[in-house]
Amino acid sequence: MDNATLPSKCPGYNLYIDGFQALRRPQVLQTSKITHVVSVIDWKFPQGSAPLRGFQHLHIPLDDVYDSNILAYFPRSNAFIHQGLNYWPKTASDNARESGVLVHCAMGVSRSATIIIAYLMWISRQPKTISQPQTTSKSSSPSDSSTPEMVSLPPTPLTVDTALALLREARPQVEPNSGFIKQLRMYEAMGCPTTQEQLESHKIYRRWMNSRNVMDALSSNRAPEMADITFRDEEDDSDDDDNKLTKNLNNLDLSSPDSGITNPDISVSSPSDTTPLPSPEVELKCRKCRRLIAKSNFIIPHKPPPHRDPSADTSAEPCAHIFLHPLSWMKDTLAQGGLDGRLACPNPKCGANIGKFAWQGLRCSCGGWVTPGFGIVRGKVDQVRSAQSRARGAVAANNNGAGAAGGNLNDAVRLPPSMRRAASTNNGNL
Looking at domain 3-193, what is its CATH homologous superfamily? Predict the structure, then answer.
């Protein structure tokens, strides 16, 4: 039989990729020892469809568009593909018996490639001896799922790029759309969860789903539901876990023009923004009452747009606003359902106007646009080193034979102008 009619086979795996036309050649599929078929296409298959007779079948009804949530299907498709690749037991008396899996979409370019890349990344992160995972398929398998099997794994876990390169060795035209690439990178940043529960409980996934719901609300010109807002200070992470998560999010290569609105927690401002996050050891406090407003790990860094007029050089002047993620003290204001409004100091005895918010975005004085925008006026807050940071600084100063602690006051606190003048006068009178 002409090999040109066979589906493309991923190197090292009995895993095939093709378009919808592959189903019109069931004899070819049987020749390739394919036992399982994954259809990633929004198509209504008739009950008992002739081309699928004799095959285990998983249907993933999705369109090939940027905002289709293909990530939610990865645990299910991984389990199904893994079951298919180990469908027949590998026994000494029957080494020749093999099984294979065909993953197809309409053209074998985007959706099917995404499902295969997700599987390649997942299997490359599993122990060398693993038990066959459970599948949602109602069909029984001749293999004993309780028996662990040896799988051939690459020396290091595959990334999105290396898995895509491997698949392109078999089918050079594969090209997942930008939304699917984004979701694959999220899956990689999460460590490729195995189960649906692990996926849906992961912070990256929860934030992404919340931001999708926010986007849906804004597209209909309404404020998002409170349940869909991620209040970052309510997450019960340790500092190390939060820093690791932030690093994973910042490493995502999200180049789509609307990624800021689609996922404000992952990409906020321009895609070329590489501004490092501020140190989490700095706190923002209301200049009037000294109430804690935010820690600096809740600050959203941003840059002026690349097309900004170079003649308007204000690089020496700091931005007029500091942009934050939504925080729990904003709840009462956001619960009113407005698309924009004022932000007041959360101290009920103070209530000073310290900034503003707009779900559809705010433009900074530097020209940068942050969506959604929760902006605190820089002149309304002081940037103060945290108590833990000051303690470490004092220990370091003592170890270095530094002078009295009072000599480090100006390094520890950014004082209001009146207090700075008083401190300067007092120091001059010593």
Answer: Protein tyrosine phosphatase superfamily (3.90.190.10)
